[in-house]
Amino acid sequence: MIHTTRSEAETAVVGRDLARTLAAGAVVLLFGDLGAGKTAFVRGLADGLGIDPADVSSPTFTLIHEYRGGRLRLFHADLYRLNDVREIEELGLEEISRNGVLAIEWAEKLPRSILGAIAVRIDQGDDDVRTLTITN
Fold this sequence. Notes:
Elements: E1 2-5, H1 8-19, E2 27-31, H2 38-49, E3 64-67, E4 73-78, H3 85-90, H4 93-97, E5 100-105, E6 118-124, E7 130-135
Parallel strand pairs: 2-5, 2-6, 4-5
Antiparallel strand pairs: 1-7, 3-4, 6-7
Helix pairs in contact: 1-2
């Protein structure tokens, strides 16, 4: 499925709509350049799960944030700073995903694919235009 958005708010709406279809154990892999809108998309996921999107921030320095208060917990991981496969594996992302929805920014750094994950590629165009390609 391909979506074109023209603002952070529109990108968040695509995330919100996807979140409404997700069940516990869902994994969303996010791909895109710095500033592409990955965190905006995760704010939309939070909103769709009933979590205040204003609570969502990039977990670059803490690696994983957990958000509660919605119909499912949302785990938000950011692999940007990690370059060692062992460090990524030690996060235990597959175990975390069983307890809610897991969104992983910079998913291209994963050492192996996660079975059944949903991939979201965000490509930047001119100005605020983004093309989001969602595949299962």
